[in-house]
Automatic annotation (TrEMBL):
Keyword line: Amino-acid biosynthesis, Aromatic amino acid biosynthesis, Lyase, Tryptophan biosynthesis
Gene field: trpA
Active site annotation, chain numbering: E58, D69
Keyword presence, Mitochondrion: no
Catalytic function, reaction form: (1S,2R)-1-C-(indol-3-yl)glycerol 3-phosphate + L-serine = D-glyceraldehyde 3-phosphate + L-tryptophan + H2O
Species whose genome carries this gene: Deinococcus arboris
Top-level division of the source organism's lineage: Bacteria
Protein name, UniProt field: Tryptophan synthase alpha chain
Matches recorded under Pfam families: Trp_syntA (PF00290)
Length: 275
């Protein structure tokens, strides 16, 4: 019971951000950036540019074997690691952001970095840094309850992923396990911007997920511009965008201007409440 009560801190902040966006007739905008990219020195300004337009900021812990990430984010992780950004350093960078903003911040991390630090110590550091939730792409919610329970003890919400290949039983299991939001992958494969903007199986997947989820549902993978963000916003509670910001930063483009454009695309053609 104690864990459940304390978990409401991060979950409440996330749910409030989704509710505020919905009240304004749009999906929540959730940009992503790898911690320590393009360098530990440059990351804070880049993340601040994203935060200016974000409802929720997603920060990735750099990891040497990110199986769910495409080549763009993989390269960003490699560069951050080469520059000395460890898991602990990533959380210190997030603490610096927290001192500047009240907006929710979620951490995307694979399981190995958590175990490398130690699950309880990782959760303690994340809580102290002001993290609101964890996105756990390689943690099946029915196979390792320790991390989810420890997250709850430290007030952190948890988010798991579903994909078009997920069975109805799997969608139900994952949806019920999420306390922050449910992350629906729009396509099979890894992260990265893609040609085309077809939603494909996403609407049906979200309809199924909402039968079981008690949290908002965000969609990511493949969103590359305002047009694709707008399409996703018609069916999702949140739009996650990552690789295009990594690419923009690598090319010296104005990441803040790009974020403003994509955030503007998250409006809905007709405002509607979501259950």
């Amino acid at each position: 019971m104690t864990a459940t009560v304390s978990a409401t801190r991060g979950a409440a902040r996330l749910h409030a951000a989704f509710a505020q966006a919905a009240a304004q007739g749009r999906a929540a905008f959730i940009p992503y950036m790898t911690a320590g990219y393009p360098s530990a020195h440059a990351f804070p300004a880049l993340a601040t540019d994203l935060l200016t337009h974000a409802d929720i900021l997603e920060v990735g812990i750099p990891y040497s074997d990110p199986l769910g990430d495409g080549p763009t984010i993989q390269r960003a992780s490699e560069q951050a690691l080469a520059g000395g950004t460890s898991t602990r350093h990533s959380l210190r960078l997030i603490a610096g952001l927290r001192a500047q903003t009240d907006k929710p911040i979620v951490v995307m991390t694979y399981v190995n970095p958590i175990y490398a630090v130690g699950p309880r110590e990782f959760m303690r550091l994340a809580q102290e840094a002001g993290v609101d939730g964890l996105i756990l792409p390689d943690l099946p919610p029915d196979q390792d309850l320790e991390i989810a329970d420890l997250a709850a003890e430290h007030g952190l919400a948890v988010t798991f992923l579903i994909a078009p290949t997920s069975t109805p039983a799997r969608v139900a299991l994952v949806a019920r396990a999420c306390t922050g939001f449910l992350y629906a992958v729009s396509v099979t494969g890894v992260t990265g911007a893609r040609e085309g903007a077809a939603l494909g199986e996403v609407p049906a997947m979200l309809a199924l997920a909402r039968q079981h989820a008690r949290v908002p549902v965000a969609v990511g993978f493949g969103v590359k511009d305002a047009a694709t963000a707008h399409q996703v916003a018609q069916v999702a509670d949140g739009v996650v965008v990552g690789s295009v910001f990594i690419t923009a930063a690598a090319n010296g483009q104005d990441v803040g201007a790009l974020a403003a454009s994509i955030a503007a695309g998250c409006g809905r053609d007709q405002a509607r409440s979501r259950g």
